[in-house]
Amino acid sequence: MNRLFLATAGLLLLAAACKPPKMDTYEKNLEVPGHEWTYDYKPSFEVKIQPEDTAYLYNICVNIRHTDAYPYSNIWVLVGTQYPGDSIPKEQRVELPLADVTGKWNGSGLDDIYEHRIFIQQNAIFNKPGTYKFTFEQNMRQNPLPHVMNVGLRIEKAGTRP
Q1: CB–CB of 147/69 below 8 Å?
Q2: Which CATH topology does 21-160 take?
Q3: Any residues with CB less than 8 A from the CB of 57 and at least 6 apart, and which?
Q4: Given pLDDT bands bounded at 50, 70 and 90, which one contains residue 15?
Q5: What is the pTM of this model?
Q6: Is the model's pLDDT at 123 over the cut of 50?
């Protein structure tokens, strides 16, 4: 009886371990080569959405890390989103404010490095499971864009869909 219980419990644990985990938070940051973001450097991020993840709302953020020498108070980015099964991404131009009207950086800073987490969509819905691909392209007039150290994507669970 005891062995049967242990074998059954072991099989149940093994079966539970094989299920893909639910996505609570996805976050990945990529280094900008030479800390100069050129037009042709387009960091991309692939996020796998499981069937059970479609029952939730998500907040989508862009992470930017730069030095104090960054010359602008904002950054314009083309955000490409490729949905599962689509071959052409949908593109949207987004302004990411980095400083307030007085020039004070909005993000958290340590010495001369500042990090920002900027919402680009709140309560987003992933309607179907599969791999979503997000691509960021800097869309400022200056090329390369100096003093940008990292660009990243963060997706966090915001609640249950209504």
Answers
A1: yes
A2: Jelly Rolls (2.60.120)
A3: 123, 124, 125, 157, 158, 159, 160, 161
A4: very low
A5: 0.83
A6: yes
